[in-house]
Specification:
By secondary structure, this protein is of the alpha/beta class. The chain has 8 helices and 9 strands. The chain has a domain at 7-35 and 96-208: 3-Layer(aba) Sandwich (Rossmann fold), CATH 3.40.50.300. Helices cover 45% and strands 21% of the residues. The strands form 2 sheets. A 5-stranded parallel beta sheet has the order 2-7-1-8-9, sandwiched between helices. The structure holds guanosine-5'-monophosphate.
């Protein structure tokens, strides 16, 4: 049977390009599964139910919480967002590394509940660059951009609670580095306790006489 996969959490300020990195990671490497979250926010143009999110009503979301069907959930800008449990469990069992792209509160609660999960914070090379990217996207008003920058100030206080940082100066380089990071994370002793115990026993046996 395949080893159980890693639960990977990716967060980052709005405008750091984490979505692009995730898409690239999934398309270029085989061993990843991207979790599709459930949300009560309305779909944006071009978004499809079941692809970007499962779009549900507040009642449906609360029912899911009551049934313990989410591994974490958070309220973000007035809407619920949460990670459905079944898909994550199934893919981890299959040996896939499951990637959650979620905000800070959700990320920290995943770490609390699943201490072996790997938390990655995607950062811009500088604050100036972040602002330039948000302005350059041209999809938000200056007021929204200011709000997002203020939020980045708050979120930046939590960077050190994550296991790894990823500075997005180049999408290709960053995607490769994320993959390498996760490959390395598979090799932590905690994930190989059985093998280590067996080796320890064998060493004792072999040196016993
Ligand atoms: P958006 O509405 O722009 O798609 O997402 C808003 C924020 O919610 C982003 O920071 C995104 O990473 C986060 N998010 C998306 N899905 C989930 C989830 O399942 N749980 C939590 N805690 N945050 C999520």
């Amino acid at each position: 049977m395949a080893n159980r996969g890693l639960l990977v959490v990716v967060s980052g300020f709005a405008g750091t390009g984490k979505g692009t990195i995730m898409k690239k990671l999934i398309s270029e490497y085989e061993n990843y599964a991207l979790s599709v979250s459930m949300t009560t926010r309305a779909p944006r143009p071009g978004e499809e139910n079941g692809r970007e999110y499962f779009f549900v009503t507040k009642e449906q979301f609360e029912e899911k919480i009551a049934k313990d069907g989410l591994i974490e959930h958070a309220c973000y800008v007035g809407n619920y967002y949460g990670t459905p449990r079944d898909y994550v469990e199934q893919k981890l069992e299959e040996g896939k590394d499951v990637v959650l792209e979620i905000e800070l509160q959700g990320a920290l609660s995943v770490k609390e509940r699943f201490p072996d999960s790997v938390l990655v914070f995607v950062l811009p090379p500088s604050a100036t660059e972040l602002k330039a990217r948000l302005v350059g996207r041209g999809t938000e008003t200056m007021e929204v951009i200011e709000k997002r920058m203020k939020r980045a100030v708050e979120e930046s206080e939590f960077i050190e609670r994550y296991d790894y940082i990823l500075v997005n100066d180049d999408v290709d380089r960053c995607t490769k580095q994320l993959h390498e990071m996760l490959q390395a994370a598979h090799q932590t002793p905690k994930l190989h306790e059985g093998f280590i115990r067996r080796l320890q026993e064998e060493l004792k046996e072999i040196t016993a006489n």
